[in-house]
Design a protein that fits this description.
The chain is an alpha/beta fold. It is built from eleven helices and nine strands. Helix 5 crosses helix 6.
Length: 273
């Protein structure tokens, strides 16, 4: 696929981190279905590449993503023209067949490096990710209510899981913009750094995940997804035991044990050369 609204690069000491950058800086990286297709393609390509261990997503220029492109999405739909590949038949305004939440939860680890304004889908596209790192200059808003809309991409569940029901209600019912410091204080973002440190911090975080084996990383993500709201602790343990049994027989576990006994670092992935 030729990318027109994102760029893709390799970072990290061993080039084990893929950097996906939303690249419409003149529009503060306003979201379109085309951008979503390109993001999904880049993430799936990274997932299929054994030399990649993790993914970082950020924005070019002053903004991360200032919400959906008004002309290209909402105005288009009001004019009777679907803005993408059958978004009316998709999930959360995404093109048909693209389940963004499932993609991110089933993916290799994903870190969002939020460099500026993140509004509407600029927030909800990040909520299924594994870590949200924000610049002190970033700001956040769940602006759906201001547009006569409701939130999407499972954000009514995922935001509440991060910040609690009361704070999620406040952010969604008011649509107000909050500065990065407040977003960090309430748990919307996991880490807060100065602007010139943002990308290095996000890449370092992603690289710390990439040092671990893909199979077990994705198993752990699956368990977190399945068990986050599970009240049956017996079922939680059953799921864990099923995966643990698979791990015991895995080459990754054998390599970790062998490396420990030999007092050497384990090798879990080929280098990108």
């Amino acid at each position: 696929m030729e990318y027109t609204q994102i760029t893709v690069d390799r970072r990290g000491a061993d080039h084990e981190v893929v950097l996906v950058t939303l690249n419409r800086p003149e529009k503060l990286n306003a979201w379109t279905p085309t951008m979503a297709d390109e993001q999904a393609h880049a993430i799936e390509a990274a997932n299929d590449d054994p030399t990649v261990g993790a993914i970082v997503m950020t924005g070019a220029g002053r903004g991360f993503c200032a919400g959906a492109d008004m002309e290209a999405t909402f105005k288009s739909r009001l004019d009777g023209v679907d803005p993408g590949r059958d978004t009316a038949g998709g999930t959360g305004g995404m093109p048909r067949g693209l389940d963004w939440v499932a993609l991110l939860r089933e993916s290799k680890p994903i870190v969002c490096a939020i460099n500026g304004a993140a509004v509407g889908i600029g927030v909800t596209m990040c909520l299924p990710a594994d870590q949200l790192v924000a610049s002190t200059g970033a700001k956040f808003g769940m602006g759906f209510i201001k547009m006569g809309l409701v939130p999407e991409l499972a954000s009514t569940r995922l935001l509440a899981a991060r910040v609690g029901l009361g704070r999620a209600s406040d952010l969604m019912l008011s649509g107000r913009i909050v500065p990065a410091a407040d977003a960090h204080r309430i748990g919307l973002v996991d880490d807060l750094v100065e602007p010139d440190e943002l990308l290095d911090r996000a890449i370092a975080t992603a690289a710390s995940y990439a040092a671990n084996p893909d199979l077990q990383l994705r198993m752990t993500k699956q368990l977190l997804t399945l068990n986050a709201a599970e009240t049956d602790l017996a079922l939680v343990q059953q799921r864990e035991m099923e995966m643990l049994t698979r791990c015991w027989a895995s080459p990754e576990h054998a390599e970790a044990v062998s490396a420990f006994l030999a007092k050497r670092p384990p090798v879990f992935r080929p280098t990108s050369g």
